[in-house]
Structure formats: structure tokens, C-alpha cells
Amino acid sequence: MSELLELAEKVVGWSRSGETVEAYVSRGTETDIHVYQGSVESLSSATSAGAGVRVVAHGRQGFAYVGSLEEEALAEALDEARDNAGFASPEPWVGLPVPDGTSPALLDLWREELAGCPTADKVAAALDLERQVRLDRRITQVETARWADVSGEMALASSLGISATDRSTACYLTVAAVAGEGVDSKEAYGYTVGRAPSELVPARAADDAVARAVRLLGAAKPRSARLAVVFEPRVTAQLLNLISSGLSGERVLKGTSLFADRLGEVVAVPGFTLVDDPTNEAAWGASVFDDEGLACRRNTMVEDGVLKSFLYDSTAARRAGTSSTANAVRAGYKSAPGVGARAVYLVPGTLSADEVLAQVGDGLLVQSMSGVHSGVNPISGDFSVGVEGLLVEGGALGAPVREVTIASSIQRMLQGVVAVGADLDWLPSSAAGLTLAISEMSMSGA
Amino acid sequence: MADPRAPGSVASAARGSNLALMTPRNGPALVDEAVVAGVLSRALATGGDFAEVFAEDRRGTAVSLDDGRIEDLSTGRELGAGIRVISGETTGFAHTADLSERGLLAAAEAASGAARGGGGGVRQVALSRYPVVTPSPVEVLPATVAKADKVELLRRADAAARASGGSVRQVSASYSEGRRQLMVANSEGLLASDDQVRVRFAVSVVASGDTGMQTGTESVGATMGFEMFDRHDVDGMARAAARRALLKLQARPAPSGTLPVVIQRGSGGVLFHEACGHGLEADHIAKAVSVFAGRVGEQVASPLVTLVDDGTMNHEWGALAIDDEGHPTSRNVLIQDGVLTDYMWDWLRARKEGRPAPANGRRQSYQHLPMVRMTNTFVLGGDEDPDEIVRQTPYGVYVAQLGGGQVNTTTGDFVFGMTEAYLIEGGKLTEPIRDANLIGNGPQVLRDIDAVGNDFAMGRPGTCGKQGQGVPVGMGQPTLRVRALTIGGTAH
After folding, report:
1. A404-444 residue pLDDT tens
2. Alpha-carbon distance values, A302 to A57, A240, A262, A266 (Å)
3. Which residue of A99, A174, A211, A349 pairs with A191 in a disulfide if CB–CB is 3.0 to 4.6 A?
């Protein structure tokens, strides 16, 4: 048994009669290196660990966390969680999950190679990336080039028989490049991700950053118009994250989802199939267990445009009279579990990105969005974001645009999908990207 | 919402009659001074120009009510230290949850190794503690208040919101408190401590009608104890949030295009936070990824604009006695009558420029490196009657509440969301409009401010995110008008 699982089991062993206890214990080792103008700007390396404890007694749940794995600290967290439970509203559906018999997927998310990678190699990789980008004469500045990696382990145990461990590694290289001078400068990012250093493709990060910054040079503010919009894969991933937040069964129960009362209805165009599948090893968010210790599984939320199912953790499932879809997620040991997706993707179509542009003919290609948190309301569905991108003219990329917004509603956008690209790309996100085209949105400019 | 008041009087109050020393709530030091001095020496044993120990004990409680139920009461504690060693252009950093001498020495060696200092030698560090004056004395430590009393606040908010109308479909409310005791020591001999207590309360309401669902929010936060609730009425906040959600059920789609925009006092500080605040942070300036780089002394804004960053504003959300590098906060004028006077600095950038002690080095926690951050950032009041500003606007948009925002400092383009807004027609507010983002370019918007009211107010508590680190910030402004901003709606 792993050391972390032993600790989790120990906390569970302290439970009293009349209560159930769950302990989530995690530890992560991170390296973060920033380089600038050929030198290391900062190098951080540290391990952090902590535990989150849930106590359920008489239908009431309490939670406490501590940033330590010392036994005394864990005992204190358990006491706090127990005390906190006394203030919650009692409900019959509140409770920890019981093992549901689903077998965990066999996923290989851990690479020993990362632990063996010397810090000097990581520094060299970041410096090389910066050098590569600066070699391009159109690039006037590299704000930062960065190496980051993390090795994370977690263990989860409960007095209802849950016992789970999971671990994964990840590393990435990213670079922010500036093209142009003064008020006409443009900045763009490129990155490459993998579970081990050998899986990284630094040239992709460099090429992306350069190409995306350079092509925005000379951008102007166009006049307001209604037009077709094409989202690049990274932008589509952001959009899918917004949509899947509304597919939380917990939100549906509380009446705060725009998809509530729409099960079985057509919510998107035919051919639109949205899946969450953390058992796909290629997904950045791949995971053997959810954050309540149930085996992750594949869930189809929207199939051929029809709303098929919502996502649940054990509490929301019990309240809805269904079973958990193993979609409990936590933001680390500091948070109690809630409902969320890990590996959302849209079933790809058959067109390449260029073919999508050709099909659209005239419109706007969106390279990046800003103000998603302030301009997209996942309850009303209202959608309004700032964008950078290029006009699409006669099926090809045209003039770059700046200081514009695009607006519609999530509901209308789902009904307006006119092309789904074949270019599925697992990004460092809980959703995968691909090129996606929407028939019409409002662009606000001059 | 915050009381209307002039920032000048707030700053002077912090240094005048309201003065209170930290000592009453300054328990035993997080780390023994002699141990800290030894750790700093070890950090520089293999070279390095500068070493720093930042120790922090952070406790928090959060309670949330959702769907009429208290679902979660959560408490937590994180205790540890971050150690920084600077050698030439390189910063090495390590952190540990082990505050014992052994744990700290191990982190010091890791940070020193990361900075790859050459040379080395024995360096003794003599620490001298300076007295810290808090701008935010606490009357009632939140941790001493019964959990049941916090739960009761949420229940009251829920009841008040639900009583606001039959179309109110859902209410969620949250209470959170945090206490952050910190100690900073560095190889220049600085030793300082602070004890920061913050309380925040937020309500969110969903209303449902023929046009679908709409949301309304209200929040208040302060650097003070539980006495915040003697000054702010949670029932009133809940009714304000419900009013917003209900109002928007009748709202028209927002316009699509460029119009004059009047922003109500207190609600629009985020505009300056994004339009120029981030662009005035010295790290962006040093790398020339800001449209404001190299422009000190130039007219960068309308002469009506004076912009200040002030960590000393007592009890404001972004108030601090010392920044997270141990330096006392201060009131810094960034733009005076439209002329750029200064940037915001942290220790690293100030050292390079040979400037005196900075006040804007902040970090999310002991696990993070400090960087240049805002505290309370605001535009001073002007001369105009706010009602007159609306009367003199034939057609435009009036924004009564803003949400968050985001800026690209390299281009200066920024967005911010409006969460309560109206059309202005013939100098009067007419119909409410739905949520949308607004987009503008920082330097252009600063020049386009053509009216500034005499009704300054600070706004709602914000959390500013930069490179993955979130810190509490305050924002404020009087009612003002921007001649032209692009509204990202759908009505053409």
C-alpha cells in the first residue's frame, strides 16, 4: 500500500460510530523555470502536500483541509470537518459513495523519465525555445519562455470501502512572443505538452507563437457586422468547457443550467456529439479515478444533437435518483468534491481546418478570446467576448482584426454549428480542441 | 457597497486618530528570529546577492448556502515558508510546509542551488524589526464568532432574496473569512510582520421568466473583522442582487457597436484596473510589453484623470500594512491630471532602477514568488454633478454594475463585463439591457474620458489574477463618461 493511502486509511480509522469519513490525500512536486534574454529569470522547485477530509453524519456534510501530512494536522482537520458537519442542512441524499463495481481503466499516466530529467536539461530546453523564437527577425521581444512540470499522486479512502490511488506526470514548454513595435505590437503564445520530456515538440511551440503573433500585425478594427465565425481548436476547447459546465447534474437539479428540463430534446445540430472520456489516455485530463474514488468512465452528454445525459457525483446522483457518472472533481486537497468534466471532446468531422474555412467562405477566424469569465453567462447562455483573429475572405485568411467582440447565446451557437473539423487536438485543458464553425454571430467593432 | 468618501480623507485617517498598533493580535513569531538569521546566512552560503524568508500561517473558513440549504462549511489551514535567493539576474525559489530549523535550512539550500550562485562565503545577517502600523485594525476576529452566526447571515440573505419576487428561482450565498499572519525577513536586515484579516459576503440570484433565466449578484468585502456586518446589511445585498436578476428579465439585447458610456461611481474601477493598471506594473514595463513603457512625463490620459494606487486605505479590500516583501505600503500617484508620473514596483524591479523601497510586491501564498501587483487602485473625484453627466448624454449606455475584465498589456486592448446596464436616450436612463462585454484600448479610453463626477466611491471586492496568482484588490472611481467604447451586444 502506498504511503499516501496508508495515511488516508489512518484518518478513516479514526471515524466514530454514526459517521462516515473520507480522506483525500495528495502530494505534488513541481518545477517552474522562466527564462528571459538567455538567462534564467526564476527557478522554483518544491513539493507540496495536503489532505481534505469529509465527514457525513445524519445527512450532513462537513469539510476541512490542511496543507500538511503530519498526523496531528490530519487529526485536527478531521475534528474540524466533524464540527463543520453539525451546521449543514440534513438531506437524505447527502453521503459518501459506495464502490459501484466499475473496473478502473488501465491507464499509464506516469513517466519515470520525468523524475530522471536533470534540472539543467529543463533549463536548456527553455533557453533553446527562447533562442529559436528570437531567431525569427519579425519577433521583437520574447516576454517569457517557460518550462513547467508536475508529478502528482493522490490517495482516497473512506469508511464505506472506497480505496483508490492515482498518479500522473505532466510537463510543458510555453513561450510568449511579441511581433512589431510600440503601439503596433502583437503578442501570441505557443506551447507543447506531454507526460514526459521526450514527448514535447518545442518546434511546435516556437512556430505557433511566431506565426500567431506575426499574422496579427497591422490589425484594424472592422465595422460591426453579423458574420460566420470559425473557432480555432484552442478557442473551441474553451467553448466546450463552458458548455459542459451547464451539463452538471447538480446545476440541473438546482435549476441553474440552461439545459435543465431539456433532456431528450434537440439542443444542437445533427452530427454534434459531445463526450466526456477520462479513460482516453491521450486526454490531458485522463484519470483512473474520480475525486470520490469511483472509476472514471465514458459519458455521452449530447448525441447527434440530442441531449442524452448529465454528469453526476454521488450526492447529485442520489438526489436525482440515478447513479454517479464518476464526475466528482476537486481543485486539489483544499476543496470538497463537486461535479465537473475532465476530458470533453466533440466527435470530429471530416474537414481539415482549411476545408472548414473554404466551406464558410466569408467570416471571422477567432484566434483568442478574452473576458470569458465576465462575458459568458452559463445560466442565461448570454455570450459576449473580446477576440483577436483574422477575417475569412473567399475561403482564405484575410486581414487581421483587433478590439472587437463577438456575441450570441450558447443556445443559438449550438444550433448554428455548420462545420466540425477533423483536427482533434488534446490541449492542456479539460476539453479537446478542433476547428468549429458557427453560421452567424454579431461582431461589434467601429 | 462602500461609503462615498474622498480617498484623501481615508488615507489621512489611517495615519491619524484611527492609528492602531499590531501588537494586540501579534502572537508568538512564526519563526524564531535567530533561526531566520541562520537560514538567511545559509541561503547565501554559496553566493547570491539577496535572500529572503517569507513565512505564512493562513487560516480560512467558508460557508455556502445553495438551493436553500447549507451545503458546505469548510475550514482549512496552511502554514509554511517560501525562500528566495537572488544571484545576478536569476531568482531561485523553494518552499516548505516544515517551519522547523531543519525544514527551513533544506529549503534555503534548494533555493540557493536553484539560483546557482557562484563564489560564496560567510555572511552574517543582522535583523532589525520595524514597527508595522496596520491600516485595518480588527474589532472582532471572525474565528471567535460562532459558526451558527455565519450560517444565520446566509439564511437571512436567502430569505430576503426569495421574498423579492415570485420569479426568483434560485439563490446562492457565500460567507468567507481569512486570516493571514506573515513574517518577512531578508539579508538586508529587514524584519517585519503583519496580520491580515478579511471578510467577504456574496449573493447570487437567478430569476426566470418568458425570456429564460437571468442572474444578479452583489458582494461586499473588507480588510476587517466580523464588525463588517454592522456596516453592511446582508438583507439589503440580497435584495439588490434579486432586483438585478428580475430587472434583466425585461432587458433588451445590448447594442452592438461604439457608443458613449457613462459608468456609475464605485462600479467601474475595473475599467482602470484593466485599461492602465496592469500596464503600469514595472515587470511589464521592464520587458516593454506594455503600451505605457517609456511614457513617464507624457500626457497619457484626459486631464480629468488622476489615478492612485493606495495600499494604506483603511479597511479596503486591497489594504495592507506591508507588502509581501516586507515594505510598508503607501499612496502612489500614477497619473496626475492625465500625465503619467510613475509605475508600480516590486523589490526586484526597484533595485534595478536604484529606487527606494517599493510597496507593490505581492504573492498569493508562501508557495509563490512575489511580483508587482496593485493594491487599491482608483481615480479621484472631479467637479461634475453625476446626474448632469447623464443629462448631457443624448444617446449611450449607462453601466450601473461591472463584472470582471481582462487586458492584453502588449496591445492595450481590454474587455470588461457589464452586469447591470441601461440605455441612455435623450439624457435619461430608459430600458435595461442584457449582459455583455465592452471592449476598448487602454490609452485611447484614457484620452476619451470627457466627464468626471464629484461622487467618488470604492467598489466591490476583486480578486486580481496574474500569471496564475490571485490576490485581493480594491477599485474605485466617481461617475464618469467615456466618449466612445465598443459594446459587445447583439442588437445592430
Report:
1. 999 999 999 999 999 999 999 999 999 999 999 999 999 99
2. 36, 12, 11, 9
3. A174
Contacts of A259 by beta carbon, 8 Å cutoff, 6+ apart: A246, A247, A252, A267, A307, A310
- Which of helix, strand or coil describes residue A315? helix
Check B410 against A67: CB less than 8 A apart: no
Per residue in A19-77, pLDDT tens? 999 999 999 999 999 999 999 999 998 899 999 999 999 999 999 999 999 999 999 99
* Residue that finishes a domain, picked among B249, B273, B306: B249
Give the three-state DSSP class for B134. strand
Q: Are residues B234 and B284 in the same domain?
A: no
Residue-by-residue DSSP string for A337-371: -EE--SSEEEPP-SB-HHHHHHHH-SEEEEEEEE-
Query: What is the Cα gyration radius of chain A?
Result: 24
> pLDDT confidence of B9, banded at 50, 70, 90?
very low
The DSSP bridge partners found for residue B441 are B413
Please tell me whether residues B360 and B376 are part of one structural domain.
yes
Using 50, 70 and 90 to split pLDDT, how confident is the model at A119?
A: very high
Asked if residue B424 lies in contact with residue A395, where contact means CB atoms within 8 angstroms, the answer is no
Single-letter amino acid code for the residue at B4: P
Q: How far apart are CA B412 and CA B292, in angstroms?
A: 9
Q: Write the DSSP symbol of residue B481.
A: E
- Gap from B424 CA to chain A (nearest CA, Å): 19
pLDDT at B18: 28
Residue B403 has what pLDDT?
Answer: 87
pLDDT at site B12: 28
Interface residue B46 vs chain A (CB under 8 A): no
Boundaries of domain holding B36: 7-249
Q: What is the CATH number of the domain that holds B130?
A: 3.30.2290.10
Model confidence pLDDT, tens digit, residues A256-310: 999 999 999 999 999 999 999 999 999 999 999 999 999 999 999 999 999 999 9
CB B66 within 8 A of CB B141: no
- In this prediction the pTM is 0.92
Which of the listed residues B249, B265, B298 is the one where a domain comes to its end? B249
Q: Judge: domain A3-214, CATH 3.30.70.330.
A: no
B/e letters for A328-359, b = 16+ CB within 10 Å, e = fewer, are bbbebbbbbbbbbbbbbbbbbbebebebbbee
Task: Based on the fold, state whether residues B27 and B50 are members of the same structural domain.
Answer: yes
Q: How buried is A106 (Cβ within 10 angstroms: 0-12 exposed, 13-18 middle, 19+ buried)?
A: exposed
The answer to whether residues A417 and A403 touch, using CB atoms and an 8 Å cutoff, is: no
- The partner residue sitting opposite B148, judged by closest CB among A87, A187, A404, is A87
Residues 6+ apart with CB under 8 A from B341: B296, B297, B333, B334, B335
In three-state secondary structure terms, B449 is: strand
Output the nine-digit C-alpha cell for B237: 445585498
What's the whole-number mean pLDDT along residues A354-372?
97
Answer whether B109 touches A (CB < 8 Å). no
Chain B closest-CA separation from residue A422 CA (Å) = 30
**Residue from B83, B152, B248, B415 to probe the interface with A (highest A Cβ count within 10 Å):** B415
Q: What is the ipTM of this complex?
A: 0.92
d(CA A418, CA B60): 48
What pairs with residue A390 in β-bridges?
A365, A400
Q: Cβ contacts (< 8 Å) between B95 and chain A: which residues?
A: 44, 46, 48
Total structural domains within chain B: 2
Distance from CA of A142 to the nearest CA of B (A): 8
